[in-house]
Design a protein that fits this description.
Layout lengths: L18 E3 L5 E6 L11 E4 L3 E6 L9 E6 L13 E4 L12 E4 L16
Antiparallel strand pairs: 1-7, 2-5, 3-4, 4-5, 6-7
The structure holds 2-acetamido-2-deoxy-beta-D-glucopyranose.
Length: about 120
């Protein structure tokens, strides 16, 4: 497979010769107990670098309710071309769009050789 070729789309959409990876499975954490900051069941809020939490109502197995937080999870992307690197495409977007990873190679919009040579 040619990682920097313009024909390779693993998952996600290609825009202007850049490649996006949307992790299929984020990481999920469940915390029993009261929701922080007086949040009520059904309310969501952003957490951490690129995550989202949701307040949950009490259930049979979680008598005081709780909240779940989703984050981007882990990805391992090996690139054949040391001039290419991965970066968050829209780090300021809300979850889960902020998880999308773009591959940048020389000539791509926003390419910054400071990040090349596998140093990320
Ligand atoms: C490349 O990234 C470095 C480190 O963030 C930054 O200092 C530099 O200004 C960037 N160069 C360009 C051309 O954006």
């Amino acid at each position: 497979m040619e990682v920097c070729g313009k024909m390779l789309i693993l998952s996600g959409v290609a825009v202007a010769a850049m490649f996006f990876f949307s992790p299929a499975h984020g990481a999920m954490m469940l915390s029993p107990g009261a929701c922080p900051d007086g949040k009520q069941p059904g309310e969501s809020w952003s957490s951490g670098d690129c995550g989202e939490c949701t307040c949950l109502a009490p259930t049979d197995w979680m008598s005081e309710g709780g909240y779940s937080c989703a984050s981007c999870g882990v990805y391992s992307i090996q690139l054949d071309n040391p001039q290419c690197y991965t970066t968050k495409e829209t780090p300021d977007a809300s979850y889960p769009q902020c998880c999308n990873i773009a591959v940048r190679c020389p000539g791509d919009d926003g390419y910054n050789e400071t990040y090349a040579n596998g140093s990320n």
